[in-house]
Write a structure and sequence with these properties.
The complex is a heterodimer of chains A (277) and B (307). Chain A is 74% helix and 0% strand. Chain A has 277 residues and is mainly α. Chain A has one domain. The longest helix of chain A is centred in the middle third of the chain and has 37 residues. The relative contact order of chain A is 0.14. In chain B, β8 and β9 form a beta hairpin. Chain B is elongated. The longest helix of chain B has 16 residues. With 307 residues, chain B is α/β, with parallel strands linked by helices. Chain B has eleven helices and 13 strands. Chain B has two domains: 212 residues, 3-Layer(aba) Sandwich (Rossmann fold), CATH 3.40.50.300; 64 residues, Alpha-Beta Plaits, CATH 3.30.70. In chain B, 44% of the residues are buried. In chain B, the strands form three sheets. A six-stranded mixed beta sheet of chain B has the order 5-6-7-3-8-9, with helices on both faces. Chains A and B meet through α1 and α5 of A and β5 and α3 of B.
Chain lengths: 277, 307
């Protein structure tokens, strides 16, 4: 518990934590509300509105927010995971911590718990800021305000956190494996954007890839958020994070993502435990 | 708990070895550090000092051999509870103040956060405790590293080149401080490649070269017996006289200068005997090898090997 307190103090006082949170929330508002609203206000584009007003109102808060989690949010979470663990190699603080007293696994556990806790505000602040902006939009458009049920919100928070936690665990593994931050972040983004992104895009043309893609991190994360209400059509219009399928059931998504988390954390823990510092 | 070693020793190693592929960084090292002593671990750069210290702290796994620190396996929580360490350059969070850095380390160590203020005062950083570590000078960083090592009020301090990067005044202050740290029950294992540091601070010294402990003893023992330097002519006659003296042993001669291993108290006798035999003595003085000369003699092969 004391090691967790220490890790939370480091995270709280670190500027990059707040910078990541701030940029993530701003991007979420920009792409989730501001640009769609400007497009909506700008009028007819190609015979139809790009985004229906309903998607920007409080009733669609959870669905509108979670659509950005499987890729964009995932990359932010990956960077957070990398920074929490990888920086200790760069600053040489890992050896200073390990010679104090705690076992390597206790330190590792504290870091994982700190990342997990830090991801909660990443989800909650995104939802709260989305709620504020969607309320403003509803007010500006004289639209009726109705909120998602408490269960929908809790389910959304849980799913969003789980998606981010999976990517953060991947970041932790990359940081431990590369003993640093720069290569880990580079490899993580390369994997998310190029490997999973390109293969997913090719899957619609190469049939045998479909089987593989169903087990990709992004495919399962998108499937999870789709299962709790994010329209699948909107995910195909998501810039570099576009996803057209294949979608799997929520049960498989949870199982596959859990396996990813266990695999990432297990390998990272084993590396940290065995390797010289 | 894995307990091993002699209860009278705070650090004990037997055949401790670390290999990195074909490179043997530490080769069968056997050493002992007693409670209350300052043990100097002397060796040239790359001799294996830091690797040894890292093994004693559980940061590096030995390839062979065994070690115990405070009677338990290196790196175990129980052992680390009584050990403070500064390994190579200090490692702290640059965006945190010195106080917050120590609070973080205190939490990991399981000691009261108030210890941070105590040790900051102890190393003279109390008035700069709230400054960011990233803004510290090299000397202040070193002192913060020592403060971190003192958080647990440890029985054993392991310090790896603690004066590196310090100016002469800072080095002198640090040496005095280390001497004070090791003046009570606490044992200090001090790694260094600086002769004067080891000579002034340490009770016993181990010299490591190419991963092998080549000599161990007090500074006096390492420097060996005193010699007499005798400049005398004619050389052949002086040599005959000196060889006949029971007080003199290990006579070496270069030009007309003799180096004689002998008790300095016998200088008058030797001088009188030489003069009475018709030998002109133009110089007679006592000399003893410096620690640096001993060190260079013990590690000379390393320099040749690196050429």
């Amino acid at each position: 518990m004391r090691s967790l307190t220490a890790e939370l103090l480091v995270l709280r006082k670190r500027a990059s934590t707040w910078i990541l949170l701030g940029i993530w929330v701003l991007l979420g508002l920009l792409f989730g509300y501001l640009l769609p609203y400007l497009s909506y206000r700008g009028g007819d584009v190609g015979g139809q509105f790009r985004t229906p007003l309903e998607a920007m109102l409080p009733q669609d808060l959870v669905a509108n927010t979670l659509g950005g989690f499987p890729f964009f949010g995932g990359v932010f979470a990956l960077m957070l995971g990398v920074l929490v663990v990888g920086s200790d190699y760069g600053w040489d603080t890992l050896k200073t911590v390990l010679v104090q007293r705690p076992s390597r696994m206790r330190v590792f556990g504290a870091k994982l718990a700190a990342v997990g806790l830090a991801l909660v505000p990443f989800v909650v602040v995104t939802l709260v800021s989305g709620a504020v902006v969607s309320t403003l939009i509803a007010g500006a458009e004289d639209a009726a305000i109705s909120w998602p049920s408490a269960w929908e919100i809790v389910r959304g928070i849980a799913a969003g956190w789980f998606v981010l936690a999976t990517w953060a665990a991947f970041g932790v593994l990359l940081a431990v494996a590369s003993r640093g931050t720069a290569l880990a972040i580079g490899l993580g983004i390369l994997y998310a954007l190029v490997i999973e992104g390109l293969l997913s895009a090719l899957a619609s043309e190469v049939s045998w890839l479909d089987g593989f893609v169903e087990y990709f991190l992004r495919a399962n994360a998108y499937s999870l958020v789709a299962a709790i209400g994010v329209p699948t059509a909107s995910l195909g219009d998501n810039g570099p994070g576009s996803f057209f399928g294949p979608f799997v059931g929520a049960g498989q998504a949870i199982v596959v993502m859990s396996a990813y988390v266990l695999g990432f954390v297990g390998i990272a823990g084993a590396l940290l435990r065995r390797r010289d510092v | 708990m894995e307990r091993s070693g002699n209860g009278d020793l705070v650090i004990e190693t037997h055949g401790l070895t670390k290999r990195y592929g074909n490179l043997v960084a530490v080769d069968g090292l056997t050493m002992r550090v007693h409670p209350g002593e300052v043990y100097g671990f002397l060796g040239p750069n790359g001799a294996g000092k830091t690797t040894t210290l890292r093994m004693l702290l559980g940061l590096v796994r030995p390839s062979a051999g065994s070690a115990s620190v405070l009677g338990v396996r290196p790196g175990s929580s129980e052992g680390l509870a009584g050990v403070g360490a500064l390994i190579e350059s200090p490692g702290f969070y640059p965006f945190l103040s010195a106080r917050d850095n120590l609070r973080v380390m205190a939490a990991h160590a399981g000691v009261d956060a108030e210890r941070a203020s105590v040790v900051l005062d102890e190393v003279g950083l109390g008035d700069r405790a709230n400054d960011r570590y990233g803004n510290y000078s090299q000397g202040m960083k070193q002192r913060l590293g020592i403060a971190s090592a003192l958080l647990k009020d440890p029985d054993v301090l392991i310090l790896d080149e603690p004066t590196i990067g310090l100016d002469p005044k800072g080095m002198a202050g640090m040496r005095t401080f280390i001497r004070e740290l090791g003046s009570g029950r606490r044992a200090v294992l001090l790694s260094s490649h600086l002769m004067s540091e080891v000579e002034h601070v340490c009770d016993r010294v181990g010299v490591i070269n190419r991963g092998v402990l080549v000599k161990e003893g007090t500074v006096d023992e390492l420097r060996g017996r005193r010699s007499l330097i005798v400049r005398a002519t004619p050389t052949e006659q002086a040599n005959r006289v000196l060889e006949g003296l029971p007080e003199a042993s290990e006579i070496r001669v270069q030009d007309d200068v003799f180096t004689v291993t002998a008790d300095p108290a016998s200088a008058a006798t030797i001088n009188r005997t030489l003069v009475e035999a018709g030998v002109a003595v133009s110089e007679l003085r006592s000399e003893r090898a410096s620690l640096e000369e001993v060190f260079l003699g013990l590690t000379n092969d390393d320099e040749e090997g690196s050429r």
